[in-house]
Design goal:
By secondary structure, the protein is mostly helical. It is built from ten helices and two strands. The radius of gyration is 18 Å and the shape is globular.
Length: 237
């Protein structure tokens, strides 16, 4: 007698339809554009004082698929040598470790600098936490200037999901685990068990593609600097 299917009788609400997924090129363009404020009638403005923060914030949502709440809650201790620990702010299944492009990790390590491990990774110019509303304004403004249409932060997450699905040939269990979906248990029961190694392999493919788009030279620079980056101890999930 076979094992009962735990997904039987479980209702899964389909997400609201989103616009055409953004490409990785779109995400990179939006991140770059976020570095400067909206030009005034007097012409373009210089980069923001915290341009690196805006840039990296958009990348973790648009490349790694973090939720707004997850990105805003990141602490410096969550930035490891080549991976990002996502503590999870929604459910226990949203806790995960993500393999990130070298170009993204280099930016995150740059933000950590000499900060303490418990300090917020993404801070405003006054040192306070970003609100959901503020992040929405940043994304809408940068996307309108970069790609000609205003998008929301969830659409950045959707772009990351689309890229993962394409490069893993529709491997839903891996992508569900990588995104920290609340329905991971149901997805895994239907499509098979997912290991951390499988998640890392899938995201590594996305990382290679994104590095080529964002900054082809960053990977080699980041690898050369690894011997000088202190290893942050893993968290016990």
């Amino acid at each position: 007698m076979g094992m009962p299917d735990p997904s039987v009788g479980v209702a899964v609400r389909a997400p609201a339809p989103l616009h055409e997924p953004l490409s990785l090129q779109d995400v990179a363009a939006i991140a770059r554009t976020s570095r400067t404020p909206t030009p005034s009638k007097h012409g373009p403005k210089d980069e923001r004082p915290n341009a690196d923060t805006y840039h990296a914030l958009i990348l973790v949502m648009g490349v790694l698929g973090l939720r707004v709440s997850e990105a805003a809650a990141l602490r410096c201790r969550h930035v490891e040598r080549t991976t990002l620990l996502v503590p999870g702010t929604k459910t226990s299944s949203s806790r995960r470790r993500l393999t990130a492009p070298a170009s993204v990790m280099a930016r995150l390590h740059g933000l950590v600098g000499k900060r303490g491990p418990d300090e917020l990774l993404f801070q405003t110019s006054t040192g306070t936490a970003f609100t959901r509303e503020k992040i929405g304004v940043i994304v809408r403004d940068a996307s309108e200037r970069a790609i000609g249409r205003r998008i929301s932060p969830p659409q950045l997450r959707h772009a990351a999901a689309a890229a993962m699905l394409e490069r893993t040939h529709g491997n839903l269990p891996v992508v569900s685990r990588a995104l920290g979906h609340a329905s991971t248990a149901v997805t895994a029961a239907v499509y098979g068990a997912v290991t951390d190694a499988a998640v890392g392999s899938a995201l590594a493919k996305v990382a290679l593609d994104f590095d080529a788009i964002l900054d082809p030279d960053s990977a080699s620079r980041f690898a050369a600097a690894q011997e000088h980056v202190p290893l942050v101890p893993d968290e016990d999930f």
